[in-house]
Prior knowledge:
Layout: H1 10-35, H2 38-43, H3 51-59, H4 67-75, H5 79-85, E1 96-99, E2 102-105, H6 110-128, H7 136-143, H8 152-168, H9 170-195
Antiparallel strand pairs: 1-2
Helix pairs in contact: 1-6, 1-9, 3-5, 6-8, 6-9, 7-8, 8-9
Amino acid sequence: MNNDTTKMPYFKRLFMHLNTVDTHRYEVMKNCFACGIPMQGIRHDLSKYSPSEFNVSVRYFQGTRSPYMYEKEHFGYSEGWLHHKGRNRHHWEYWYDMIDGKWVPLEMPFDCLVEMVCDRVAACKVYQKEKYTDSSALEYYLSRNDRFYMHEKTAAALEAILRDIAKRGDKAVFADLKIQIRQYRKENQKKLKSLHQ
């Protein structure tokens, strides 16, 4: 693929981007269903169809990585990404807040963390295609400095799950996560009942 796909005709970029988003959402949906969070899979990344994200992503479509990366490299920030991360709880960047006058990372709820895993595995499959391996999501994670800005428990849990996928494959790990999600939901229901008593 030509390095500067922004020179491609608009409608070609539009259909290629739409195909990438739809394929990605389908992959995430399959992963989320396997992990026991089907509604999160169905709702995953719906904001990508909003004008704030869709138009920018078509303009900077590349097909081998997120259009937001192109936008950041050329402009220093990405309008589409700023919109996206503020509306999607499966991104660790969503979980920042000001506490005692300082911006700090918050620990992600477990179901959001699981959706993030589903998202990362799906993104690697969509962008890497036949080069994808069970280690792809872990390698991508380790190649970036995200873990230094996440809540330490979120970073540790994410890395442990990705290492497990690299060893045993996503199907086995997703089956385990489905059991953990059930347990997580039971515990949350108990907490809610105790709060209302």
